[in-house]
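Components:
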Amino acid sequence: MSTLEHTLPGHPHMTRAAPKDPTTPLRHSRQRESIRQFLATTREHPTADLVYQHMKVEFPNISLATVYRNLNLLTDIGEAIRITPPDSADRFDGNTMPHNHFYCTRCKCILDLDLDMEEIEPLYQAASANFDGIIESSNTFFFGLCGNCVKTASELV
Amino acid sequence: MSTLEHTLPGHPHMTRAAPKDPTTPLRHSRQRESIRQFLATTREHPTADLVYQHMKVEFPNISLATVYRNLNLLTDIGEAIRITPPDSADRFDGNTMPHNHFYCTRCKCILDLDLDMEEIEPLYQAASANFDGIIESSNTFFFGLCGNCVKTASELV
DNA sequence: TACGATAATGATAATCATTATTGTTTTAGG
DNA sequence: CCTAAAACAATAATGATTATCATTATCGTA
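Structure:
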């Protein structure tokens, strides 16, 4: 396992939404379990609001706050990854294996990139070299047009 | 010049704040000039609000909207870079030379990283390889503790 | 030098994403 | 069962950013 596999997953800001005392174990909740499940199966990198819409099927009166609470919680405990695009709401990804993301500037979809994380390792090393702090993780984001948008754009000519 | 030097600067979302017709040249404005100047000289990667505070010295009744408008405009025309941290307001950087950023998860400062952009090129190539869209730019963000925070943290023991 | 078209501004309302608050319901251990 | 507190739903509040609109500044031209 590379160093990166330890350090890359998730954005590192803590917003624990549950027990005051972080040593007390989490209690079970059907809502959280369902959110976790949904993230585990979808590849759509949904926003909090999309997760909310989806949860309403099973829990007609779930609260948006509950969705946020649990997305933050899952992110904090490393069971989800938060993705922060420059111009829209955060997305969440249940796939915590280190991987990279692509952001389509036209349709604003987020796609996984099939890019070996080993590629990033030297970058990480190089960055740590002449830096007097401690680099704990890195995150590479790619921008451009997704396949669909390229097709659509060419049809518009 | 590498491909990257063309594509890396700035986040690629357009929010033009000025002329309806983008072919008409920009008019001069003292506020915009001052904002541009401030970005050019500072290394602090200020938020819109910090720019606003700074501008108020010279323009006591400048509007925050004007600051946002011009920061967006400068970003659009490639004279500034927008940096979007995962948990706080956007920062702006007048240095449009391709470079990377470090984000301190403790004090939330943003620092430039002395990392040769050549390091990133292979990553960019690799990402483009098996991807059916068009990758136009990439952005690598590093997280961790800055030098000051490392020092402070060790003193607290 | 004044004039007119419109870009740019200041003031502020509106929007959007997210977090905080509060009272109620669930969970899980005794 | 009973109870403490975790988790919830509902919703108010916050923070960042954008939209609106009436006024002012810029700049080419009369």
